[in-house]
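Collaboration report, partner site 2.

Our partner group contributed sequences for two proteins of shared interest, and the home lab folded both. The records are reproduced in the order in which they were received, starting with the first partner submission.
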Amino acid sequence: MDSRTLLLKTALNLFAQRGYDSVGVQEIVATAELTKPSLYHHFGSKHGLLDALLTEGSAPLNEALRTASAYDGNLDVALERVLDAYLCFAENAPDFYRFWLSLLFCPPGHEAYRLAVSLFTAQSALLERMFQSAAQDHGNMKGRHVRYAYVFISVINSVVAANTGGEIRIEADQRREILHQFSHGIYS
């Protein structure tokens, strides 16, 4: 494994266990058995490391969401695809997902919060477009696309947090129930 990849994996492991602020550059490089100049060469700083970690770590989810959120005339199917994209990603990258969610609870001025929110905002924009397109077929949804995107992602993040934490296991019937409960609110 190259040193850049090793630093990203090591940082994610440490950040996921103890949080971004609790882990220093020295601990990251010592755990990876590398030196600080190696980290600075690849990332410039701890903030640069976090930026790369979040950007690269979220890329598979963002790509899956671009496809999943494409509205094709059936909002129920699109919602199911979006939920599946999040759940599949979280199943494959649970440490990343939990870590990313934890950053959304940092103080708003915190550097980690700003990076985490930028990911949330990009994902939200994809879902906003999906809901905006669906509103053409469902007149009662007009003008609510921002709220629907925010609420749907919030519901998904709650479900993912419980699922990756082991509190619940989301099976096919639970997925349908989640989608039914959410859809009931947007169609009424």
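Second partner submission, folded after the first:
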Amino acid sequence: MEPIPKPEKAAIAIYENLADSLEEKLGTERSKMFGMQCLKVRKKAFCGLFGNDMVFKLTGDEHEQAMALNGAKLFDPTGMKRPMKEWVQVPFVHKRKWESLAIEALKYVG
């Protein structure tokens, strides 16, 4: 199993702002999943910070659209070629889309 990549300050700042916003507006909570920071609703994770990328639990059109982003891939936290089919890892370059993806993931899980 590969170690979880350490996020840089810029990625942490965006994640923290997103977490603050969703906690205040929608009652989400911060937690950990696979050793990474994540956000949950009713004890179910819907997104998390993995290195400088964010991962989102998505389905349907939202999943397809996220996978179409340049560099996006199915999330494989172990690095053992067993990706989690509903989870999409979205690179930092698409940070402006993270909030809308998080809201879609929250809708799906919540």
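Feedback sent to the partner group on the second submission included the following. Strands lie at 29-33, 36-41, 44-50, 53-57, 73-75, 84-90. The chain has a mean pLDDT of 94.
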